[in-house]
């Protein structure tokens, strides 16, 4: 009989009892709403090749790319939705091998995480870092899962209008990386048919156009609105923002908010939140009246030092169990004081965790 419990080394597998014995439960890619379901097989596989070439554009190549992409996305693949995984960095007597970035991307439940607003920015930032430097290190299955989750991220922004600027930056970095790999570096670094990657690049450009044309509708509120609040409360809310572009965009709403966003108070608090006093002394920016120009100083410091990252919820790593998990989901820890072993993992630290 298979082992059903959870030990400190790895999560127990899911099993079900059948007439022929115990079988492991697996999840396939078609259960996670693979993209390109809208492709018409009759149109793609049609034998009618008349009028395929129009001028210098050959539609036969486009049709072939669609067929390759469809075949690539409809093949079954193992996809897990674990709330935690064991990070194996070497071989032991009990376990052989190690956990890779692609395996972590496949097994952790990122599809459900993007539906949580506390985790959305974290997952989007992680995918942006992967797009910049780690895309070629992913396996073929991990790359499929990456683009499937990316489609859900774009779909959530289009449906809920949540943080489109972050996703625009993600798609821009991914488009630049794919263009560089497919055109300049060469096809040898890409896993799979190059037509699949060219079709993915076209899909990314389509997503970018959709986000650029995104119009957020004006909400009709019958109760108290933000403009009805006293000025000191509006200024207090403005000072709670940790992103400079949020302050600038909020200042474009009304003339009153513009005057509040141009004052030195929110920019001073923003500088103290992201940078230290030692960094202030090295890059002090004064105005004509010998006062500190806090807005200009923020953008000056940002050129030299990284800003502090802030997320509603992050992945955590247990140093005692070597387990990576979402904090509110927990994990089977055997430590006497589990809280003392926890360490929050930033998106960059998540990637560094799998560098061997």
UniProtKB/TrEMBL annotation:
The keyword Nucleus applies. Pathway: Protein modification; protein ubiquitination. GO terms for cellular component: cytoplasm; nucleus; SCF ubiquitin ligase complex. It is found in: Nucleus. The gene is fbxo25. Substrate-recognition component of the SCF (SKP1-CUL1-F-box protein)-type E3 ubiquitin ligase complex. May play a role in accumulation of expanded polyglutamine (polyQ) protein huntingtin (HTT). The keyword Transferase does not apply. Keywords: Nucleus, Ubl conjugation pathway. PANTHER family: F-BOX ONLY PROTEIN 25 (PTHR13123:SF8), LD30288P (PTHR13123). This is F-box only protein 25. One of its GO terms (biological process) is protein ubiquitination.
